[in-house]
């Protein structure tokens, strides 16, 4: 009897292994196909999109471009004046599409209050874009405790508080899309950005883990997208080091927003801006560490230290 059960067990494992191999071949073929044929893009017309950090930069461009896709846009920023201006610009073009809320997203209680207001005044958020962030550029020894804690409060813990508040509504609908703004500094460590890099690596891990948790719990209609921009010309990076500016120039907030929205519409799991950077990193991770470091030194990207 025991031998028969063992045979059935191994037969089951073998069948699973064969299925895994068949799926792997299919997924590789699918990836090759979509390298040649553009992915279909979903409509955003019925979505309520909440974006943090909409007072300027990438967040403002995202808010305006999501509105252009006929989505309702919930603009959230700690700066009430600039955030209200963003919503005003959107509503001048698309009446009633934008709603402005002032909130310190680094504080759980304030985010929960925000969630209650948004749900009663706008509706259930179906796309959440965690964009707000800060980027002090200085050596690790020049950072004090308060600055490091602030980096993690805004760049990392705010993601947790937003998930705590808005993910349950998506689960109830079994529909939603979570967008995590990491950075290429969340893929590759850089001098003068040690706490910032650590915070963006954390965002990447958070995104992968919450995807796995939701997938394991059966929420298969929830989508997750991690974004890894190169240096974006938003004013955060005042002294960029770029050896080959014609090859890797500063990225504009407008083009960054366009690529993020395209990634959302295609349900991409991860996307770098420019797109080849993530592929290049993945390739070099397969080679000796010293080789990867020499290539990084040759490209010469980074930031010089400067005051905020």
UniProtKB/TrEMBL annotation:
Main location: membrane
N-terminal signal peptide: none
Chain segments annotated as transmembrane: none
Keywords noted in UniProt: Lipid metabolism, Membrane, NADP, Oxidoreductase, Transmembrane, Transmembrane helix
Cross-referenced InterPro entries: NAD(P)-bd_dom_sf, SDR_fam
One GO cellular component term: lipid droplet
Key word Transmembrane present: yes
Membrane topology per record: Multi-pass membrane protein
Molecular function GO terms recorded: all-trans-retinol dehydrogenase (NADP+) activity
Cellular localization per UniProt: Membrane
Similarity section: Belongs to the short-chain dehydrogenases/reductases (SDR) family.
Protein function: Catalyzes the reduction of all-trans-retinal to all-trans-retinol in the presence of NADPH.
Protein name: Short-chain dehydrogenase/reductase 3
Native organism: Acyrthosiphon pisum
């Amino acid at each position: 009897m025991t031998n028969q059960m063992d045979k059935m067990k191994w037969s089951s494992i073998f069948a699973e292994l064969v299925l895994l191999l068949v799926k792997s071949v299919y997924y590789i073929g699918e990836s090759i196909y979509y390298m040649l044929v553009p992915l279909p893009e979903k409509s955003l017309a019925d979505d309520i999109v909440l974006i943090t950090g909409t007072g300027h930069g990438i967040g403002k461009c995202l808010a305006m471009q999501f509105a252009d896709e006929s989505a309702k846009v919930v603009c959230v920023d700690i700066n009430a004046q600039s955030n209200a201006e963003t919503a005003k610009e959107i509503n001048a073009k698309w009446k009633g599409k934008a709603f402005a809320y002032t909130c310190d997203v680094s504080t759980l209680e304030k985010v929960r209050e925000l969630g209650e207001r948004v749900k009663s005044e706008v509706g259930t958020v179906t796309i959440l874009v965690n964009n707000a962030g800060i980027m002090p550029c200085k050596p690790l020894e020049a950072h004090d405790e308060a600055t490091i804690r602030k980096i993690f409060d805004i760049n990392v813990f705010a993601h947790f508080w937003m998930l705590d508040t808005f993910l349950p509504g998506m689960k109830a609908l079994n529909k939603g899309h979570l967008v995590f703004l990491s950075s290429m500094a969340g893929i590759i460590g850089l001098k003068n950005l040690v706490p910032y890099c650590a915070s963006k690596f954390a965002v990447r891990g958070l995104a992968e883990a919450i995807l796995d948790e939701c997938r394991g719990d059966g929420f298969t209609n929830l989508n997750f997208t991690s974004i890894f921009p190169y240096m974006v010309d938003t004013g955060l990076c005042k002294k960029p080091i770029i050896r080959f500016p014609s090859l890797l120039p500063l990225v504009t907030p407008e083009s960054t927003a366009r690529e993020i929205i395209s990634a959302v519409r295609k349900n991409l799991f991860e996307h770098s801006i420019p797109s080849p950077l993530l592929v290049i990193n993945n390739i070099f991770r397969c080679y000796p560490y010293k080789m990867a470091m020499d290539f990084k030194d040759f490209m010469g990207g980074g930031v010089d230290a400067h005051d905020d």
